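Q: What does the assembly look like in three dimensions?
Context provided by user:
Components: four
Sequences:
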Amino acid sequence: MKNTFGNTITLTIFGESHGPAIGGVLDGLPPGLKIDEEDIRKMNDRRRPAGKTGTARREADRLEFLSGVKDGYSEGTPLAFIIRNTDVKRHDYDALTGIARPGHADYSAQMKYLGYQDASGGGHFSGRLTAVLTTAGAILMRALEEKGILIGTHISVLGGIEDQKLDTLDPADQLRELRGKQFAVLNEEAGEKMRMLIEQTAEQKDSVGGILETGIAGLPAGIGEPFFDSLESMLAHVLFSIPAVKGVEFGSGFGFAEMKGSEASDPFALRDDRVVTLANHNGGVNGGISNGMPVTLRTAYKPVSSIGKPQKTISFEKMEETEIEIQGRHDPAIVHRACAVQDAVCALVIADMLAVRYGTLWLKGGCE
Amino acid sequence: MKNTFGNTITLTIFGESHGPAIGGVLDGLPPGLKIDEEDIRKMNDRRRPAGKTGTARREADRLEFLSGVKDGYSEGTPLAFIIRNTDVKRHDYDALTGIARPGHADYSAQMKYLGYQDASGGGHFSGRLTAVLTTAGAILMRALEEKGILIGTHISVLGGIEDQKLDTLDPADQLRELRGKQFAVLNEEAGEKMRMLIEQTAEQKDSVGGILETGIAGLPAGIGEPFFDSLESMLAHVLFSIPAVKGVEFGSGFGFAEMKGSEASDPFALRDDRVVTLANHNGGVNGGISNGMPVTLRTAYKPVSSIGKPQKTISFEKMEETEIEIQGRHDPAIVHRACAVQDAVCALVIADMLAVRYGTLWLKGGCE
Amino acid sequence: MKNTFGNTITLTIFGESHGPAIGGVLDGLPPGLKIDEEDIRKMNDRRRPAGKTGTARREADRLEFLSGVKDGYSEGTPLAFIIRNTDVKRHDYDALTGIARPGHADYSAQMKYLGYQDASGGGHFSGRLTAVLTTAGAILMRALEEKGILIGTHISVLGGIEDQKLDTLDPADQLRELRGKQFAVLNEEAGEKMRMLIEQTAEQKDSVGGILETGIAGLPAGIGEPFFDSLESMLAHVLFSIPAVKGVEFGSGFGFAEMKGSEASDPFALRDDRVVTLANHNGGVNGGISNGMPVTLRTAYKPVSSIGKPQKTISFEKMEETEIEIQGRHDPAIVHRACAVQDAVCALVIADMLAVRYGTLWLKGGCE
Amino acid sequence: MKNTFGNTITLTIFGESHGPAIGGVLDGLPPGLKIDEEDIRKMNDRRRPAGKTGTARREADRLEFLSGVKDGYSEGTPLAFIIRNTDVKRHDYDALTGIARPGHADYSAQMKYLGYQDASGGGHFSGRLTAVLTTAGAILMRALEEKGILIGTHISVLGGIEDQKLDTLDPADQLRELRGKQFAVLNEEAGEKMRMLIEQTAEQKDSVGGILETGIAGLPAGIGEPFFDSLESMLAHVLFSIPAVKGVEFGSGFGFAEMKGSEASDPFALRDDRVVTLANHNGGVNGGISNGMPVTLRTAYKPVSSIGKPQKTISFEKMEETEIEIQGRHDPAIVHRACAVQDAVCALVIADMLAVRYGTLWLKGGCE
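A: Here is the predicted structure of the complete assembly.
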C-alpha cells in the first residue's frame, strides 16, 4: 500500500477529513529552497472554496511545519507539515453511516478497510486531502520557476462551455496570466458563462464536470524513461490520484483517433539554433521523453457525486436497498478548484524527474 | 529512472530493436505457476504482424527462458526470458542517421542519451519491446483466469470507424470471445470496414490511429490505494508506456465533461446478495479502489509516425533543416496489434496489486 | 534520499530534536490492528532515560495520533503520529555552533545540508528520533506476538562486562522475561556490575559502548530473498540506521572466522515432526532465508561521542582548529536504552517481510 | 520479492547455477561509460577458482551483452548481460535430492519455493551468482576511479591467520596494490601461511572461514541519509546478500564494545585546508553520512558448508533423519575469491548513492 510517490523527491500523504489533521512529508528536497508561506497560502486559496461557486463549509487551511524548515529555508531533511481539521460538522454525515453513496468510495472503502475506516466526510478520500498536494506543490513550483520552468492550468471545458485554447507552441504568457486567477480561464466571457452554469446547477441540486488543461513550458529535452517511468506515465500516475479525475490525455490525446499520420505530424525545425516542432500534437513528449516543446495535457473530472436529488442505493451495513437524499453543503462543481491541485502535482513530478537526472542539489541552484 | 515496474510482482524490461536481444525479468511470481508456452505464443501471435494489415518485416519471436522456470512451472525465483533479434534489415535505416523523424523519439533520445544510443529501428523505443510485455502478461493472464479474473480488449474506434461497445455491466462473454481473435472486434462488419481502411491508408503511404477498450471482469472490490497507487494510477502508468498511447480514460472518461451528476450516477443495488451498480459510468473504480463491477478503460493510440509521404524535419547531427521520405516497411496502423499488449499490461498490474493485498502465494492457489 | 523503509508495510520518519515535533507515518498496516497506547508507552519507557543510568534531560514523549486510528484500531489508512518536543534547553548548544564535535554528524551534516540544517541537539541525527522507531515497533510487536512471533533484546556486553547468553535453540522464555525489564539483562549480577560501571564512567566524564543481542522466535521458514532483500540484509539495513550502531552479525557472526566448517555445522533433525537444527551457528538464516529456527543477531554500539573531557577539533564555520569541552547533560551510555529500539526495528522488518509473502491482511488475523 | 537493488542505478539479478544462464540488468547508468571487457575479465578472474586454492570445477564465465552497450560504451538504456552455464556436472548432486544439507539453503528454499525450485548446484543460491555482481561492479569501478574514488579489499583474517591492517587514515596506495592481486593480502608471508592452511583444510575434507576488510578512499563528504539509507545501511544491505556473509562492521565495529568514549574519539583537524580526522574509529561515517575520510569495513564469512566429512541431517522429502557425505568438488575456502565480489558491491552502492546526490550524468563526467 503505497501512499508515497516519487523516486528522489518523494511525497508521503496522510489524513482523514474528520480526523485530527491531514498532512504530508516531502522528502529529498535540496537544502536551501526558499519556503515561502505566502506562495503556499495563495496556492491553497486557489483550491479553497469561497463565495457562490463552492461549498459553504469554511475550510481553515492553517498550515504548520513540523520539521525540515529553518528560518524560511528547507534544511534538506524530511519536511513534514500538517493542516489541522477545524470547523467540522459531523452531524451532516450521521444519517449516512453504513450507506454506499453512489459514485463515492464508501463501498470500496468498506471492502478494503473492513469497516475500520473513518467514513465521515469522506475520510481519507476527501477532496480536502488535496490541500496536502497543493502545499507540497507550491514549494516546488517556486523553485522550478527560478529554473525557467512554468506550469499553469485553466478550465478547458466546464459543463459543455469551452474556454479559449492554450497556445501549444508557446503558452508561457498564458501560463503566467493563469496563476494569479481564482477562476482560471483565458477568456473572461467563457468564465462568466461557466460561473452562471455552476449557480444554476447548484439550484437544481445537481453537479457538473469538466476538463482542465495544463501547460508546462521550459522543460529541458531528455526527461523521462521509455519503460516504465515515461513523462506521461509519471504525470498520469499522480493526476489519476486526484479525486474525480477519470481521464488523462497528452497533446491531441483522444483526438488522434480521428487523424491520419500526415495530419498528426509535428515537423522539426530550427529557430535561432534551437530545435522546435512546428506543431505540437504530441504535447511535448516523444517516446515517453520530453523533446523541449511545451508539455500539454488535459484531465477529465467527473461531476461531483454528492447531489441533493434523491438517489437509490444500498446500506451495506444492513445489506438492503434504500434511498438517500444528501443534505448539507456540497459543491456543484470542483473543477475550478482543481487547477491549483493540478499545477501542484505536475510540479511534484517534474521536480522529481529533474532531480533524478541532474541530482538532488540541482533544484537549489547548481551542481557539483 | 526506472525500467522496473511493480511492488511485489515486478517486471524489468531491456533491449533494443536491433541489438542482440530484447527481454525481461519477471520477479515476485509465486512458485508453481504453470508456464504455458502455447499461451505465450498465442499472445505474441496477436501482437505480431502478418498479412495485409501489418508490416512486411517478419519478426521472429523465438522465446528463450534463462531462469526461473523448471519443468514448465515457475520456481518462484526471478524469471528471465529473452527474444533474439533476427531478420534485421539495417539498411532501411542508414539514411536516417542523425535525423529527427517527426513524431519519433530520435531527438528526445539524442538529448537523453547524448548520442550513445542505438537508434536503428527505434532502438529501445521500438514497438518490438512490447513483445516483452505480452510474454510477461501471458504468464499472468492464465493465473488470473484461474482466479476468476478475465481481461479482454477490442478496437473501439479505428480511423473513425466504431465497433460495438463493451457491456460495462457484464462483459465476461465478450471478453472470452475477444481473446481468440487476431483482429479483435465485437462486430465483424465494423472489423471488415476497419481492415479496408487500413489497406487504403497503406496505399496512400499514410497511417491511422484509434482507440482500444479493455474490460476486466471478476476483480474483487477493495483493490487500490487512494493516494497514490490507485487502480487507475497503476493501470495508466503502464498503459502510457506502451508506444503510441497518448490518452487513458476510465468509465465515461472524457465523456463526463458533458454530464450532470444526476446523469453520471451509478446507483448501488443488491442482486443475489451481491452488491452491484445499475450503471457503470465509473468504470468499476470509486476513490481509486475497485468496487467489484467490471473495470472498463479506453486508450488513445496516435497514428504511426513513420509514413511514406515526404516530411520536413531536421538533422540534429548537422543542425540543419532537411526533408525525408521514409522508405521500407512500415505499419499503416498498429492499434489492432496492441490489443494483446494492453491485455498483458493490465494483467501485470492487476496481478501485482492482488499480490500486495493477498500475498505472493495467493496467485498460485491459496494462502497460509 | 530515502527516509522511508519497507515494501508493503513502510515507515516514513521525520523530525529534528529541537524542532516542533518528531514523528512518523506507518503505512500498509492492515485494518483492525489494536493500537494499544499502554503498549506504546511501556516501549517508550524502556527507551526514555531516567534515574542514574541516563541523561538528566526529561524527554516528554507525549504521543499524538494524527490519522489512521479510530476507536483504538488501525483504519488501514496511513497512520501518522507525532511527539512534540518540549523541555528543550537550547542554551546547552549555542557554544557549539559551527563546531564539528568528534564522532558526531556535525561536519557530515554540514557537507550534506550546506549549512541549512538545524544542528541544535543533534537535529535530525538525535537519538531522540528513535522514539519514532519504538512507537511504530510497539504497534507491530503486539500483532506479531498474536501470530506467535516473539522478539526480545538484552545487553550482551557493556564495557567488557558480559551477560548470560541467549539460548539460541529455544529462547522464547528468555525473550518473554526480557520485555518487562527496564535494564534488560538475563543475569541480574552482571546487570548490577554494568550499572555500576555506567555510574563510574559518568563520574569520569567519559562514556562506554556495548553489544546488544536480539532473538526472534516463531518466525516461519521461507522468509527472505537470496538477492537482495535477504532477512539479514533487511534487518541490518534498519539496524545500521539506529544512531551509534557500527556492527551487525548473525549467529556466530565474526566468531566464524575462527571456526572450521565441521565446527560450524548446524545438523538438521526431526523433533515431533518439526524440522529443527541441533545447533544454531547460522542464527536461523540459510541463504538469506529463515529456516524456522530462532533468528539471533548482535549489534555493536560505539560509546556515546559527547563526553565531558576536553577534545581537539575544528570549527568548520571559521575553518580553524580549536578545542571543546562539552557542558550540560549527556549519557555515559545509551546501549541499555537501545534494547527497545532494536526490538522495534526488528518488528518493523519482520512484519513487512511477512506482509509481502502472506498479504496485507495476514497480520490482522487471516487471509482471503 | 525484490531481486533489484538501488535507487537511481539499479541491478536486477537472475539465474540458477544449473539453469541456462545467470545474468543481470544494470539500469540507470549514464550514457557514455566505457565498458571495458578486459576490466570485467580481470575482475571475474579474481573471483573464479583456479589452481590449488579452489574448486576443481572450471567455471566458464563467458559474458554476453544483450542490450545497453554500443561500440564499447553504455547507451544509457538498461544494460543486460548473461553468463551461460557450461561445464555442469549434474550427477554430483543427484544423491542429494530432497536432502537438507547442513548450512545450505536447501530446506529454507523448500519452504519458500514449495518444491518448485531448481536445487541442483545450489540453484539461485549458488556462489556462482556472484559473477553477476562482479560484472556489474567492474563497470562501475572504472567510472568511480576516474572520479578519484578507489575501492580495494584484502583478506584480513583467514582461519585465525592475520594479514597486515589497512591504513585507515590513508589506504590509497594499499588499495591500488590490492586490485592486481589474485590472492589479496598486504603481507605476502601471511598470505603464504593462509594458502598452506587452505590446502591442509582441503586434505582434511573440511573448510575454513575468514574476514575481509574493504577500504573506500576519495568518497566526498555528505553521502548518505540518517534514516534509513545511511551509508552503512546501504553497504551492509548488499554485503549481507553475498553468500556466506554473516557479519558486517564499520571502523572499529565490534571492537567499540571494549572502548571508552575517550579512546574511541576521532578528533577533527585541518591539513592543507582539508578537514580530516586524526583517527578513524568511525570508518569514515558519522551519523550515517560520509565525512570525507576513508570508509573502512570488515565482513565475516562463515566456513563453506559443503564438507567431505559425514554429517547428520534430514531428508525433507521423506521427512526422516539421515546422514550424508558430500562427494565431488568443493571449495575449502571461498573468502579469497570474495574480495572481488566485495569490491563490486561496494562500487554498486557508492555509484548509486552518488547518482542520487549528483544526478545520473555525474558519473560520466560532469553535470548540467
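Follow-up: The mean pLDDT of chain A is 89.
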